[in-house]
Amino acid sequence: MRKISDWGNYPVIEADVGGFDTADQLRQKLGKPGPVIAFGNGRSYGDASLQENILLTRRFSKFLSFDEATGELCCQAGVLLSEILDVFVPRGWFLPVTPGTKLITVGGAIAADVHGKNHHVDGSFGQHVLSMDVMRSDGSVMTCSPTENAEFFNITTGGMGLTGIILTAAFRLRKIETAYIREETVRAANLDEIMDGFEASNDWTYSVAWIDCLAKGDSMGRSIMMRGEHAKTVELLNPSHKHAPLKPKSGIKLDIPVMFPNFALNHWTMQAFNFAYYNMCRPGTHKSIVDYNSYFYPLDAIGNWNRIYGKRGFTQYQFVIPKEAGREGMRNILRRITDSGLGSFLAVLKLFGEQESFISFPMAGYTLALDFPISLKAMDLFKELDAMVAGYGGRLYLAKDSRMDAAMFEKTYPNADDFRQAIATLNDGETRFASLLSKRIGVTS
Ligand SMILES: Cc1cc2nc3c(=O)[nH]c(=O)nc-3n(C[C@H](O)[C@H](O)[C@H](O)COP(=O)(O)OP(=O)(O)OC[C@H]3O[C@@H](n4cnc5c(N)ncnc54)[C@H](O)[C@@H]3O)c2cc1C
Q: 12, 99, 117, 244: most buried by Cβ count inside 10 Å?
């Protein structure tokens, strides 16, 4: 038994934790009765990969094949996105979709059906998966794709590890000329301006905004939008970039060596940070060429940054509300958050494109994600926010959640019932897949 948690360090549990190197070893482990859940790299925030028996997938991480002509990559599910980038960016290929950290596994990317800054153009990660092999609780391996065993494919994509252990996946990488992004940053003085900014940025492949969730009144929603395109070789101006366009210099990596004390982060330190960050960007639009790590993964440059929240841990409240409810809904929810003064410095706003998957999080609309140190006040606030999000026809992201109840899940995920029934049918054996998350939201017992 050992102590383990996901990225938010809340909850921390004692669990029996073990890994596997081969499919046969995994089959043996699944031969034991009782519940189990896959643990990728623990970058979900709450309890999605936690329960008393945990199967670590990281050792199952070989590249299996790559087709230079089509960009089709097949690999084991414990491979990290960062490992794919390390090998394939120098060869001129990039991920089809990437979240704000590259330190997640391929299995975690599919199980949470992760989204990136290009959701409005390219959809979620699962929409790029061509096929996958999944080991079920009886040790059998199911090959599935959008056309083969499609129902199983659809509940595994976004199914949070509850259908089985994803062993391998094939998906197509995208061709790039350089490892750089042509970026434009645009400062917006309030919520209306940033929403106009998103509408005007629909032609950009990547767009996202950092939003100050502590600013009030006329400044509520003040933001910095970062939109980008993969830079072409001719667009690189710096001679060292031109010389090796696919090999950017690696930046300095910092590390947070210990847990911060709980008092280090308070309303004032967060407000000071937000003020400084917003004002670092001058008004107007600014163009630059940045390497892909700086654009997509600024937080990965600070190892263990989750420790700044201290031992109490933190959670991320990420919701999406449909576009029709967008402006008014977002204004009301944001006002409630800013009034509470509880938000922290990491808030991200994004406009999703259309998506109608079986159980995945994204839908056409605005999504806001912000971190909160764990506190009783925050828990009370979330209850109020839940009612508002549900009232606007929105929902919460399971990969970030550690506290939503079954009623909220039921109300906001249209296929909640069918999902529960499908998982019950698949779990009809002595071994079954279940997590603290799946129990809490009533998908499994
Ligand atoms: C800094 C940061 C930024 C982030 N930004 C984004 C973002 O922009 N967009 C976004 O969508 N998400 C984002 N996330 C969330 C993250 O991408 C997801 O939670 C992802 O699922 C984590 O993958 P993991 O490999 O760490 O898996 P874990 O966190 O260990 O597990 C996540 C889920 O996947 C399941 N799982 C893992 N491996 C397998 C497998 N082989 N077979 C079956 N099930 C499996 C687990 O059981 C669990 O349900 C971010 C997280 C962090 C920490």
A: 117
